[in-house]
Every structure is written in structure tokens, then in C-alpha cells.
Specification:
Elements: H1 2-6, E1 12-14, H2 22-27, E2 32-35, H3 51-63, E3 66-70, H4 75-82, E4 88-90, H5 99-107, E5 115-119, H6 122-131, E6 135-139, H7 148-174
Parallel strand pairs: 1-6, 2-3, 2-5, 3-4, 5-6
């Protein structure tokens, strides 16, 4: 049971993309970050990135990272969102399937050992990244307003996340 659940555990869990230590990750050898869009970067109904997202992406690029958007959403949504960011963007990625995650990595000349996948959903983003043995960072969803299919999955995700958090606390108390 625990082994089965571990494939859904993120490498890290943070409140938002602003709580990720990008400089430290770069020092650890990571060179590429694949971001989910909806409820990871912005609420799913926000058409364009905020100034804070644009500035953060510039900072991340200045550190030395390659960046891609890897989203299950449609082409119009992701193309419109990417107009101001101008990074590699893959729509209809079909996560947790790995084909389009690999495609993003190949386009950016990344390897599994130096790629991070950041997202808000366990069953798509984290599981997809874990299937490739990438470092995965789960963020708290930005908004509670979501598409129906996502709302349905969230209850099961909460159970997995609670188990993960108990396990992390247990391991932290041992150290």
C-alpha cells in the first residue's frame, strides 16, 4: 500500500511557486523547470500571467534555468497565456502520460536528473513527473474555483496528501 502511494508523493510540497528556492535548485544541478499553468501559476480562468509571474520567470531565466509550460489545457488557452512569457509551451500534454513531458525536456535539451516538474495536481503533474523519476514540486492550488473533473479528483488527492504530510512529519521527528 505504501509503495503504491509513494508514486503520488511529490519530492517537495510548498505553498506556491514563490516559495521555491530556485537558486538552491540550480546549485544542486537542476537546469530546467516544467510548469503546469492552471492553478499552479494562475487561476484556471485567468487569461494572462500576472506581472509577478512574468518577473519571476525572468529571474528564473537569469539564474540559468530553461523553462517550459506543460499543460493539459487547450491550444488557445496556453498560446494566449504564453504570449508575454515567450517560453516553450505544450498544450494538451495528457499528463500523467509522459510523452509530452519528454518532448518538452528534449526541446530544452534536459535530462531526467536535471529537470523539475511543478504543478498543483497529484494525479496529473506529480504522478506524471514521478513516472519519469523527475524532481516534483507540488504547490497548493491558487484557487478553489476549478473545472468539475479536477474537483472530483481533489478529495482523493487530499487523502494522499494527508498521508504524505504525516509521513514527512514522522521522518522529520526522527531527524
Amino acid at each position: 500500500m505504501i509503495l503504491l502511494l509513494k508514486r503520488f508523493f511529490p519530492s517537495e510540497y510548498v505553498d506556491s511557486i514563490n516559495h521555491i528556492n530556485y537558486k538552491k535548485l540550480y546549485e544542486e544541478g537542476y537546469r530546467g523547470i516544467l510548469f503546469d499553468v492552471d492553478n499552479t501559476l494562475v487561476p484556471y480562468d485567468m487569461e494572462h500571467p500576472t506581472k509577478q509571474i512574468i518577473d519571476l520567470f525572468e529571474e528564473i531565466k537569469e539564474i540559468g534555468f530553461e523553462i517550459a509550460l506543460v499543460s493539459n489545457n487547450n491550444e488557445v488557452r496556453i498560446t494566449t497565456f504564453n504570449e508575454k512569457l515567450q517560453v516553450l509551451a505544450i498544450h494538451k500534454a495528457l499528463k500523467p502520460m509522459t510523452r509530452n513531458i519528454k518532448r518538452a525536456m528534449q526541446s530544452l535539451k534536459l535530462k531526467k536528473k536535471n529537470t523539475i516538474l511543478v504543478g498543483d495536481q497529484i494525479f496529473t503533474d506529480i504522478y506524471g513527473g514521478n513516472r519519469l523519476k523527475l524532481k516534483t514540486i507540488l504547490v497548493v492550488p491558487i484557487s478553489e474555483k476549478e473545472q468539475l473533473i479536477t474537483k472530483i479528483k481533489r478529495n482523493t488527492e487530499k487523502k494522499i496528501l494527508n498521508y504524505y504530510l504525516k509521513k514527512v512529519k514522522k521522518n522529520d521527528s526522527k531527524n
